[in-house]
User: What shape does this take?
Amino acid sequence: MKILVIGAGAGGAAATIELSLAGHDVTLWNRSPQTLEPFKTNGIAYDGVLGEGVLRPAGITASLRDAVRGADAALVTLPTFSHGVVAQALAGAGWSSITPVILNPGHTGGALEFHEAYRRAGATPPPIAEFSTLTYVARKYQPDHVTVSGRAGSIRAAALPGGAAALAAARQLYPTAYDTGDVLASDLSNVNMVLHPPGAVLAAAWVEATHGDFTFYVEGMTPGVVRVMAALDNERRAVAAAFGHDLPTVIEEMRAIGTVSADAAADDYRAAISDGEANRRIKAPDTLTHRYYVEDFGYGLTPFLALATIANVQTPVAAALSLLGDAACGVTPDAGRTAERMGIAGLSRDELMRRVRGAS
Assistant: This one.
């Protein structure tokens, strides 16, 4: 397949490497020529679970109009707060309304927001699918080098009605992905929404005082943090149940993905997370502008609270974390992925379920 990878961060670099090695014709796009220049000059150096080497993909460009030509599918690997902007950019660049778009990841509400942003741009939305989480644990420690410490095993995927082609493309590119039924199931399986906000809020002073000089998933996983995390996880599962989905705990979900040990106890959050090989060496955020704050509050908790309101499920822990996170970061609740931006404001539970399942 001819694949357009959108985003040259760690996730985009990892996807470009894996899909190129699998035989796909990959073009890497990023709006910043400066971000792409090290890859253009030196190739994409990589190490970790995908092997080690230097790869030059079929194409690297900062011109979206050039990048979209002839593509069989687009894989959006940018942070989820970029989804609305990317949708508008693709619409403006002439992306075909029948060519699939895959959000890697969609996290919570990604496909819904992407569809709504595309519609508001005055264009017909293409087939849209999303993964519940990024298919990689990866970091760019150097501008031309990505370290991929983990690669997702079994991962949830879902498409909006009319998105069968996008779901098929997603599963072709990532054969371990499986159809989880509808985007509410994938939205509510966003592990980062559970993993990051409790530690990010409760360690905010530590983050600012040390500039993140501690291991987030080991030193940051104190008993108090873990108790809050477990309570947030219970709220997530209750909202999912209100929409007809019996979702596992975040630890069971991470076992399936492969970011914690296969024999990790489902009820021992601290041991499972701190012992996970993919995450144990990752440092904490260095500022309150890190994506653990910007992304996992406004684009994790905010859409989750919108879904909880529609489901009529009380989520006091999520609400408290959201308020504290927004206050600490100096942002307002309407800065993130709101019900309005997802196009679901005012819907009832049954109306939302019909929206995502295509039922009459």
User: Anything to note?
Assistant: The first helix runs from residue 10 to 21. The chain has two domains: 2-187, 191-357. Residues 20 and 26 are 6 Å apart (CA to CA).
